[in-house]
Amino acid sequence: MNPGMILTTALLIVLAYALGGIPTSHLFARRRGLDLRDTGSGNLGATNASRSLGMRTGIAIGLVDIAKGIIPVVISSLISTIPQSMVPVIGIAAVLGHVFTPYLRPHKGGKGVATGAGVVAVLFPQLIPFALLLFFGIAFITRYVSLASITTFASLLPLYFLLNLYVDNPYQSVDILSLLALLSIILYTHRANLKRLMAGTETKFKASDSKEDP
Q1: Omega of the bond prior to 72 within 30 degrees of 0, cis?
Q2: pLDDT digits (tens, 9 = 90+) for 148-197
């Protein structure tokens, strides 16, 4: 890459991190006089927001968080002055921003599921129907959102291999590395959930647990 490409790419990575780091649920909650870090699971994600702020608000937060993954990937993919192999890196920067928000101390944000889903939606749109079916199927049957999230991201790489084999498309190393990176982030942010799932103490999500939206 020439200096101009390097500078543009670095700037997009920083901007993606800054956009992904906007603590959506925290901002929504503060308007209600709440701090989600001291409420429920303490996580700044859509699931905890749904329990604490209401289902409709939680869905709105989830959609905004998804958009934080979509926007930087779409914009960077349209810029011809950067290598397209760097577009996934920019998307992952947005997910890391969501997880390690620069706007709060400690720098603890959400778990990266919604923003990661936004990145996947742009980079791997062919995987989305299967991922949605798997996520909502597991969440509905088990009521464990964490299990649904982990399983869905773990399934993306096998689905990628199967679908590309079916349509006889060559595998791309950048695609494989991107999916592995996203899975690694999800496993890291859900490490406590994994322990609780194995111990049988993980909290199940029920719509009846959500507070009513005002």
Answers
A1: no
A2: 999 999 999 999 999 988 777 788 999 999 999 999 999 999 999 999 99
Which residue type occupies 164? N
pLDDT tens digits, 63-97: 999 999 999 999 999 998 888 899 999 999 999 99
H helix runs in the chain, sequence order: 3-20, 24-31, 46-53, 55-77, 87-99, 113-123, 128-142, 145-166, 173-189, 191-199
How many beta carbons lie within 10 A of that of residue 81, not counting itself? Answer: 11
Which residue is it, tokens 């969440």?
A: 139
CA 88 vs. chain centroid, Å, equals 13
Residue bearing tokens 């991190």: 17
Least Cα distance to 143 among 47, 38, 43 occurs for 47
The token pair at 38 is 């001291």
What's the longest Cα–Cα distance across the chain?
A: 56
pLDDT of residue 207: 58
